[in-house]
Design brief:
InterPro entries: TMEM170A/B/YPR153W-like. It is found in: Membrane. This is Integral membrane protein. The chain contains 4 helices and 2 strands. By secondary structure, the protein is mainly alpha-helical. It has one domain. The chain has a two-stranded antiparallel sheet. α2 crosses α4. It starts with 30 loop residues before the first strand and ends in an 8-residue tail after the last helix.
Length: 140
């Protein structure tokens, strides 16, 4: 396997640095080389997606409970959901970024990682979060 040498003039691309994955123009594609960058990008994307999923659920809760007697403290639902989203995203993003050794494998082999990989892992994390919120009944 051929390895990539990290360019001498390499600078971490700014977040989000996504590009068209289908035939990107020369110089348009952005890559990550270091584990810290992979962790940061994965954590940011996971925070964004988790916040979106939790705030959507909070909005549903507010709309459904609007006519109830709890209207005085209803504003706390989005705040509580946002705090929970941040904590879950911190844990999930760190697990994928470090414990899963996603970035370490690429750094050890001096491979370049597309900025799309942390984005895709954040989408996978969010889908797992949504799927795990449902109860699954056994058919036995």
């Amino acid at each position: 396997m051929a390895t990539q040498v990290i360019p001498l003039d390499y600078k971490t691309p700014p977040f989000p640095s996504l590009y068209s994955p289908f035939r990107p123009l020369r110089g348009q594609a952005q890559y990550l080389f270091y584990t810290g960058d992979v962790l940061r990008f994965t954590l940011y994307w996971t925070l964004l997606f988790y916040a979106g999923a939790h705030l959507t659920a909070a909005l549903c809760a507010v709309v459904l409970q609007w006519r109830s007697n709890w209207r005085k403290i209803l504003w706390a639902a989005p705040l509580l959901y946002t705090v929970v989203a941040a904590l879950q995203a911190l844990l999930a993003g760190s697990v994928v970024g470090l414990v899963d050794r996603l970035g370490l494998v690429f750094e050890a082999g001096s491979f370049k990682m597309s900025t799309w990989i942390p984005f895709i892992w954040a989408v996978i994390n969010t889908l797992v979060l949504i799927l795990s919120s449902f109860t699954i009944q056994g058919g036995l």
